[in-house]
Amino acid sequence: MPPEIGGGSLLIAWQLSGKRVLIVGGGEIASQRINSILVTDAHITVLSPSAGLHPRTEQLIAGYPTRITYLDGSYEHNPDDLELTKYDMILTALDDVELSRSICHYCRDRRIPVNAADIPDLCDFYFGSQIRDGPLQIMVSTNGNGPRLANLVMKKIRDALSGREGAAIEKVGALRVKLKERAPGVGGAVGKRRMTWMTKLCNEWDMGELGQLNEGTMQKLLDEGWEKDQVPSPRALGLKAKGVSSCPRNNRSPILPVLIGFATGVAYCAAVSWLLRKK
Amino acid sequence: MPPEIGGGSLLIAWQLSGKRVLIVGGGEIASQRINSILVTDAHITVLSPSAGLHPRTEQLIAGYPTRITYLDGSYEHNPDDLELTKYDMILTALDDVELSRSICHYCRDRRIPVNAADIPDLCDFYFGSQIRDGPLQIMVSTNGNGPRLANLVMKKIRDALSGREGAAIEKVGALRVKLKERAPGVGGAVGKRRMTWMTKLCNEWDMGELGQLNEGTMQKLLDEGWEKDQVPSPRALGLKAKGVSSCPRNNRSPILPVLIGFATGVAYCAAVSWLLRKK
């Protein structure tokens, strides 16, 4: 059973590879939208009069010429030429609320996913704060209740991660592909055996160890591990066992407090015996 | 500039309030999909022959009669009666890959957002591992590279949070609404002043303190704080200042190591002086 029913959003990872995204507007919010979409493989079109371009938007347009097409103009003057229906997603970042609303209604009628900055009731979806480490992506949403607190939660999450999760996930993904080539088949007994072996590996190796895998050690892991139905230690494959710790960055070692305690204990004893001798 | 360009998904919070979601299939995956959608306020329709219902799916259908409509049948036999276009999102959880594919193509042509379990290339979006604490929602996606490692990342995040973030975000959201009523207006000078004051509050109070706010203390905070352009301490409002710590659960106190060190130091001293006296 889900822990909390109702009232939430559906957090999803939208796929934009080979898709087209239109951003209407060129201000600061538009530059944030461009950054969000650059993370994907979508082609971006920015529609804005050149006078309305924020320096950051200009920089992005200049910096990613193969990713971004810039149209100098405004939505009001050529909506027919625009062919909005050729876009797979439309984001508005306009000061003109009425114009934003009319674009949203146009999109809604044609089921084009749309987000209008600052008009939550018209949005098909909201953006959130994000962390990315290679294939690992994390999103924090407060459902519009507090962007400032979202940043504090993001900081806690960043501090809890070692920064080695992305590399580990990438290597495990590559290993899964190799394993599927070696033992193909969807579902059934072989699928179950693959899943069990991968789970065992991920439980026994830590993130730092998984991240050290390369072509050679993956081959060895499949030969010595999968084929013999066991999970060898990283050391057995010539990797540094627990060499790279995956402890969170803020995990403090207890050595210093022990030393301080020890020194205080010795000092206390010395003081007491000095006082006793003085008598 | 975004830290990593290309290759990623667009993580978004999809809005399903007042929307209709169709789940085709009734097995274990279908029950997971129902759980995901129950978090939102969407109405759910499950289409599956009764013989194909997993016990968990049956339980959910029985447990949430106002949220879930169950259609006993299969997609093949009455696609016309179904009126797929009345749904705002369609999720397939079927063993029949060909059927799943044909539903996906139907949806794609009509721009109905669709997810097909186990057929990533046909999905408009992927699901991910999620944490929810009231208005706070967190999603972890490995972009299909390793569900097992996603769970390990989730565990790290859970351990880093105090469990008081949701309550704090909820209270801050309510306070923002009250503040907007007291000092209305979109953007401009008043919008800027509101944002500055809220940011200052969130920086100076911790999550445990923010979560203690109620109707009375919010009123006081606006009267004594906002009106006088200052942020009073939680103590000044009669709340326990730092009473409820917002430290992560795994943050260890250094008292124990200090005590151990102290005891070792005293024992060491005693042993040394005993040995010296013996001579």
TrEMBL record, chains A, B:
Q: Does the keyword NAD apply?
A: yes
From the record, give the transmembrane residue ranges. Answer: 255-276
Q: In which pathway does it act?
A: Porphyrin-containing compound metabolism; siroheme biosynthesis; sirohydrochlorin from precorrin-2: step 1/1
EC number per UniProt: 1.3.1.76
Sequence ranges assigned to domain Siroheme biosynthesis protein Met8 C-terminal in this UniProt record: 166-232
Name the GO terms of the biological process aspect.
siroheme biosynthetic process
| InterPro entries (UniProt xref) | Met8-like, Met8_C, NAD(P)-bd_dom_sf, Sirohaem_synthase_central, Sirohaem_synthase_N
- Is Membrane there in the keyword field? yes
Q: Name one GO molecular function term.
A: ferrochelatase activity
- Keywords (A to Z) from UniProt: Membrane, NAD, Oxidoreductase, Porphyrin biosynthesis, Transmembrane, Transmembrane helix
Give start and end of each Siroheme synthase central domain. Answer: 133-158
Recorded catalytic reaction(s): these are:
precorrin-2 + NAD(+) = sirohydrochlorin + NADH + 2 H(+)
Source taxon at top rank: Eukaryota
User: NCBIfam families in the record, alphabetically?
Assistant: cysG_Nterm
- In Swiss-Prot or TrEMBL terms, this protein is called precorrin-2 dehydrogenase
Q: Which organism is it from?
A: Macrolepiota fuliginosa MF-IS2
